[in-house]
Amino acid sequence: MADGRAGGFTLIEVLIALAITAFVSTIAYTSLSSALSGVEATRAAAARTYEVNRAWLIISRDLRQLALRPVRDEFGDMEPALQGGAAARFALSLTRSGWHNPNEQRRSTLQRVNYRLEDDALWRDSYPVLDRVGDTAAYSVKLLDNVEDLELAFLSSLARVETAGPGASLDTRHWSASWVPDTSAPGVELPPPVAVEIRLRLGDWGEMRRLYELPPL
Questions:
Q1: In what order do the strands lie in the sheet with 195-202?
Q2: Who's near 54: CB < 8 A, 6+ residues apart?
Q3: CB-based burial, 169-192: b 16+ in 10 Å, e otherwise
Q4: Poorest-pLDDT segment among 23-27, 35-39, 70-74, 144-148
Q5: Which among 18, 29, 79, 126 is placed 20 to 30 Å from 181, CA to CA?
Q6: What is the mean pLDDT of the chain?
Q7: In whole angstroms, what is the distance from residue 27 CA to residue 152 CA?
């Protein structure tokens, strides 16, 4: 005698199938989400690495191209070829050579640049002329975000070079924290230091240090 029941799935079988489908979907979504998060994290780390390296590259280029050319600021006061540190107006200010002139404009190939820390960011200012007047505007570029601190140290002479011990790195603890003209000796030109140490403390990477030997002038 034939079975009169209609073929199909029971309610329990349907619920089990739905549960399995939901479980597999959850695993697939979690795996995909983790993969996407990993890609985004890698992309963000690569972008940050590029920004940091680019900032150091620009700083290095400017210091390597240091030129012995004092300038006048917008107040008419003389600024030495290089000055900076805690007692200076800007963290670092210098005259550099090698300012490209592809359009062959009537201007110098020397350029005055400043580095400063503002709003937790490292900025670079450059000027269209060497000797400024009151309305000379700077072209400002943000080099790096999330910068908590910027400190410099200056070495006046190779005779003052010290190391922390045999085979150790240079000891910069006794280097000058500022490189500015002596106000008690007006008119005396301030020569550039022989070396500069720059310390950046980043909110995500911690402290970074770079030591630059300046070109003889």
A1: 147-155, 195-202, 206-213
A2: 143
A3: eeebeebbeebbbeeeeeeeebeb
A4: 35-39
A5: 126
A6: 87
A7: 52
Q: Which two tokens stand for residue 209?
A: 């240090």
Distances (CA, A) of 197 to 152, 209, 211: 6, 7, 4
pLDDT (tens digit per residue) in 150-209: 999 999 988 777 765 555 577 888 899 999 998 777 777 899 999 999 999 999 999 999
Nearest Cα to 63, choosing from 6, 16, 147, 124?
Answer: 124
CA distance 152 to 199: 6
Each domain of the chain, given as residue ranges in start order, spans 54-213
Q: Following DSSP, what letter does each residue of 95-154 receive, concatenated?
A: EES----TT--SS-S-EEEEEEEETTEEEEEE-SSSS--TTPPPEEEEEEESEEEEEEEE
pLDDT of 1 over the 50 cut: no
Amino acid at 83: Q
**In angstroms, rounded to a whole number, what is the distance separating the alpha carbons of residues 24 and 21?**
5
